[in-house]
């Protein structure tokens, strides 16, 4: 029985790998296309998210009188956030491939950013921080401190802090892209506002809507910032290719 399980499993694994590889290639192509007009892409996404947020609120009120319903776990708001985090990771990886080549991802700001964003995307779609927080509270009796609402907020804050500590030593790579740096700094501020609401503000339905809407906006600002970096990287590569092509041209 076990000897027949391996051959059937391998084709499935190959199929999954091929699917993931195709999805990654498509995301890279979309990132390159949008990098030609990063601000237009960002403002378009901001407008789309605003329209969707209004629809989520209206839908929740219409379904069961809960304006936060469609922002909750595994609802459209969560799926939208998951998709945006995956796309930011794809843009970061596109930068890493073009700037660092075969260099290990953990030695690069862009590679590290891509992996960290995948971790956040995993948490968003699985809600792992919520389950872990509940397990710690109910299983071990651990309670949040310092004014936090719950252990989930504590865990997410620690995750953000850990990500910042890992990324900070590599931030000089962003100094070559001052406009992107300013946009990414704004994204961090908006994200911190969202996390502050989650951690400390009185928990109401409208508070949850505001918190999730700010999170979606922060993600779009990250999209814009990383697309601006990718645009700069592609432009620099194009400039380097022109002299090389001229040198190869016969005289």
Features:
251 residues, 8 helices
In short:
The protein is an all-alpha fold.
Structure description:
By secondary structure, the chain is mainly α. The protein has one domain (2-233). It has helices at residues 2-35, 38-64, 76-100, 109-126, 128-140, 151-167, 178-200, 205-248. Helix 1 packs across helix 8. The N and C termini lie far apart (69 Å). The mean pLDDT is 88.
Radius of gyration: 21 Å
pLDDT < 50 runs, ≥5 residues: none
* Structural category: mainly alpha
Task: Write down the overall mean pLDDT.
Answer: 88
Alpha-carbon distance between the two ends: 69 Å
Q: How is the topology of this model organized?
A:
Layout: H1 2-35, H2 38-64, H3 76-100, H4 109-126, H5 128-140, H6 151-167, H7 178-200, H8 205-248
Helix pairs in contact: 1-3, 1-8, 2-8, 3-4, 3-8, 5-6, 7-8
